[in-house]
Structure formats: structure tokens, C-alpha cells
């Protein structure tokens, strides 16, 4: 298909944010939507490299509210969007090994419960009883919520892309945005590797690359790419089918069932910002040793696959939604390691912002770009 010369909106990025926004705009009847993805396949950026975890367990009111809208959208996905996304509600079990984290967990649970999320507080003994295959002698407390779990990222992206396309949106892969032409206070056109598209409206949904797109438009976005990596193991028959998504919070070390084996990841707290997506072999060994210390049976497993991807991180670990100082240039980015699960509602929110000028499903107006200059930061504690 040839690239159209004009568009009512150009969405940059074919990850979960761009795909969900295209779907929700098309659902509202918007015509002449163009989505551009630079890679040969949709959803191969952060979305395709993510752990697929979805949870209600956050520490801020707004993140919990985003989950309260987004996760039911994932539950309804097959009926509404027409694609099975394999939502497995295995629960997230977060483990605290310090008094500081244990107190924070208690505060978080109170907030979650007050908003209707039925997370349970566990004692150290409860944690040990729930996880007999793991060594958690130092566990002080834990939190568990059964409806947290796992979802297939590729199915969510392709579900949205296919449904948006059926409704008339034009989605292109293998087309890279190389520039944004600005005239006066607004956007004039988007330059791509396959030609120019005239448009007055652009949605920057380029995830870890969104600050580069911002630069093209002369808009500074405080979003930095930070590498994260994980690996999967050969089958481990000891892992029960209801094994939860376990997070050793102090070490940002996590385990969840993947096929018959495990997916294991750990965040390197010393990782410098950058676009490198190759595996850091040295850190993989650190991760492996930490994993074996927590779960000795990992030692007898083989590695099936490993990969790295980029978090798109903001200074307060919350996303940025909405307007910039450039007319028509809006953003949906900066999800800081937990954006896959908020993709469904975020696309819907951006469709409201673009078509109605305000967010109606949830008021996310406090998550605007201006908050960084105005010092209105809202810190999330549950970052993995
Ligand atoms: C290792 C890892 C584990 C994670 N685990 C989880 C998890 O368990 N749960 C969770 O909710 N979140 C998780 N996340 C975070 C989540 O993946 C992201 O927050 C989310 O996928 C961001 O979606 P996006 O659409 O904004 O970005 P992306 O999926 O990166 O999409 C942006 C797209 O823009 C494209 N693009 C960039 N520049 C251009 C250009 N110039 N022209 C055209 N296209 C361009 C890119 O190729 C990319 O496909 C994880 C992330 C990583 C890296």
C-alpha cells in the first residue's frame, strides 16, 4: 500500500500505545488515521520484549485507577476486539525483605483496598508457605492479588492493529519517521523514509524512542531508555501450574511461569541510559546467581532464550499524557516499566483527548508534560 499524502492524524509507533490509540480513534469514527512503525513487524519494541505482567498492585491512586480500567478491558478483549490474549490470573506475589518495604506494602494495600482492589497482606511465614520451592528465610511480609497475572503482548498489539485496520485505519510497518515539519505554532507534516505526509496532528507513541521524536518537533520529553533483560528456562516439572508472578522486591528479581519452565528477570540498578538492546552477559550471570539463591532448582534448568529491551523511564515513573507546547503534537509515553498493562486504557484516553480535548474515562490531566517544569511529580514505589 502506498503511503497517503495527507492524514487527519499520524501515530508514530506500532507498540501497544500506538496500536491501542489507532483502534480507539477508529472506534470513535475518526477517518484518515495513519500509524507508522519503523520495524518490519508491529510490537517488536518494548511491548514485544516485555514480561507480559499485568497487575493492580501499585502505590499511587492514579496507577491503581489505570489498572482498574485497563485490566478489565484486557478481560473483555476477545469479545470487544476479537482476539484471544491469553490472560492467566496467576496472581502477583510481592515479597518484602526490609522493614521499609514491608511498611510501604502495608500502606499500598490500604490504598488498593480503599479503591476496591482486594490485595492481601501476607506475613513472612505466609510467603514461605506459599512458595515452598523458594528460599525466603528473610521475608518479612508479602502482598498477593489473585487477579494480577500474565497476558500475551503480541496478541494485544495485533488484536488492536487488525481491528483498527478493519475500521479503516492505515497501518504501516517498515516506515520510519525521520522528521517533523513545523510552521508557526503547529505541525505541518511528518517526514518519513517513504515520503511526506501532511497533517496537523501527531501522536508520539514511540515508547523508548519518544524523546527522539520529541526532538524532531523541538519538544523536550524527559523520557530515557533504560535496558532491561530476562531469560527463560527449560521445563521444570516441579513448578506448579498456579505458580504466581513472584517479585523479590528489594532485588527487582522476578520469576513467572513460562510454558513448562520459568521466565526470570532482574533490573540492573546501575544500568546507564542508552539504546543498546544487546544482552549484558555479565549481568545475566548476576541475575542467574540471584535466581538460584532464591530458587535452587533453577540450577538444573537450561536456558531456552534471553533478550533485552528498553524501559521508557520518566523522573517520577509515571506516564506523560496529552498536549505539548507545540499545537497538534501530543504524547503518550514514559510508562517506566509497566506500560503494557496500561496500553488498553491509555489508547482510549488519548482518543478522548484528541477528539474531545479532555480525558473522560479517568482524569489523567495531572500526568501532563508540564508537571516536570512545575514540580508536580507523583512518585510510584512499586517499580520493578
Ligand atoms: C524487559 C521489559 C519488561 C517489561 N515488563 C513489563 C510487564 O511485565 N508489564 C508491563 O505492563 N510492562 C512491562 N514493560 C514495559 C512495557 O513493555 C512498555 O511500557 C510498553 O510496552 C510501552 O509501549 P509503547 O507502545 O509506548 O512502546 P513500544 O512498544 O516500544 O512501541 C514504540 C514503537 O515505536 C517505534 N518507533 C520508534 N521510533 C520510530 C520512528 N522514528 N518511526 C516509526 N516508528 C518508530 C518502535 O520501533 C516501537 O515499535 C517491560 C518492558 C521491558 C523492556
Describe the structure.
By secondary structure, the chain is α/β, with parallel strands linked by helices. The chain contains ten helices and 19 strands. It has helices spanning 16-27, 61-75, 77-81, 99-114, 124-130, 153-166, 210-216, 281-294, 343-356, 370-374; strands spanning 9-12, 33-37, 53-54, 92-96, 120-123, 141-145, 149-150, 170-173, 177-183, 186-192, 195-198, 202-204, 224-233, 245-248, 253-258, 261-266, 303-313, 320-322, 329-333. An eight-stranded mixed beta sheet has the order 5-6-4-14-15-16-13-17. The longest helix is centred in the N-terminal third of the chain and has 16 residues, at 99-114. Flavin-adenine dinucleotide is lined by residues 12-18, 36-39, 44-47, 49-53, 176-177, 205-209, 213, 228, 230, 309-312, 333, 335, 337-341.
* Strand coverage percent: 25-35%
Shape, principal axes of CA atoms = globular
Number of DSSP-assigned strands: 19
Query: Ligands bound here?
Result: flavin-adenine dinucleotide
Helical region count?
A: 10
Q: Give a quick account of the main beta sheet: strands, pairing sense, barrel closure.
A: 8 strands, mixed
The residue-averaged pLDDT reads 97
Amino acid at each position: 500500500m502506498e503511503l497517503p499524502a495527507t492524514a487527519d492524524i499520524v501515530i508514530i509507533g506500532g507498540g501497544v500505545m500506538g496500536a491501542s490509540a489507532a483502534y480507539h480513534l477508529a472506534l470513535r469514527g475518526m477517518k484518515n488515521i495513519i500509524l507508522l512503525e519503523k520495524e518490519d513487524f508491529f510490537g517488536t519494541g518494548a511491548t514485544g520484549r516485555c514480561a507480559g505482567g499485568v497487575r493492580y498492585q501499585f502505590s499511587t491512586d492514579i496507577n491503581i485507577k489505570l489498572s482498574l480500567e485497563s485490566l478489565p478491558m484486557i478481560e473483555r478483549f476477545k469479545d470487544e476486539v476479537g482476539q484471544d490474549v491469553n490472560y492467566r490470573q496467576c496472581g502477583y506475589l510481592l515479597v518484602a525483605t526490609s522493614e521499609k518495604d514491608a511498611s510501604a506494602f502495608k500502606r499500598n494495600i490500604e490504598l488498593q483496598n480503599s479503591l476496591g482492589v482486594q490485595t492481601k497482606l501476607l506475613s513472612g511465614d505466609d510467603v514461605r508457605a506459599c512458595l515452598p520451592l523458594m528460599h525466603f528465610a528473610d521475608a518479612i511480609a508479602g502482598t498477593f492479588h489473585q487477579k494480577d497475572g500474565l497476558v500475551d503482548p503480541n496478541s494485544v498489539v495485533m488484536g488492536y492493529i487488525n481491528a483498527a485496520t478493519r475500521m479503516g485505519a492505515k497501518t504501516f510497518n517498515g516506515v520510519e519517521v525521520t522528521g517533523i515539519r513545523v510552521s508557526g505554532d503547529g505541525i505541518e507534516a511528518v517526514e518519513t523514509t517513504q515520503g511526506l505526509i501532511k497533517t496537523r496532528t501527531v501522536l508520539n507513541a514511540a515508547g523508548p524512542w519518544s524523546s527522539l521524536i520529541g526532538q524532531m518537533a523541538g519538544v523536550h520529553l524527559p523520557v530515557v531508555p533504560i535496558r532491561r533483560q530476562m531469560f527463560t528456562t527449560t521445563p521444570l516439572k516441579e513448578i506448579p501450574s498456579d505458580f504466581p508472578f513472584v517479585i523479590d522486591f528489594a532485588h527487582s528479581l522476578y520469576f513467572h511461569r513460562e510454558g513448562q519452565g520459568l521466565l526470570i528477570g532482574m533490573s540492573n540498578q546501575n544500568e546507564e541510559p542508552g539504546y543498546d538492546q544487546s544482552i549484558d552477559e555479565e549481568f545475566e550471570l548476576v541475575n542467574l546467581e540471584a535466581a538460584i539463591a532464591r530458587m535452587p532448582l533453577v540450577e538444573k534448568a537450561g536456558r531456552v532464550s534471553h533478550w533485552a529491551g528498553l524501559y521508557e523511564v520518566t523522573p517520577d515513573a509515571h506516564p506523560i499524557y496529552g498536549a505539548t507546547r507545540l499545537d497538534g503534537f501530543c504524547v503518550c509515553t514514559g510508562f517506566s516499566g509497566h506500560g503494557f498493562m496500561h496500553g488498553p486504557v491509555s489508547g482510549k484516553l488519548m482518543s478522548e483527548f484528541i477528539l474531545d480535548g479532555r480525558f473522560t474515562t479517568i482524569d489523567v490531566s495531572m500526568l501532563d508534560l508540564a508537571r516536570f517544569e512545575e514540580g508536580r511529580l507523583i512518585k510510584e514505589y512499586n517499580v520493578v
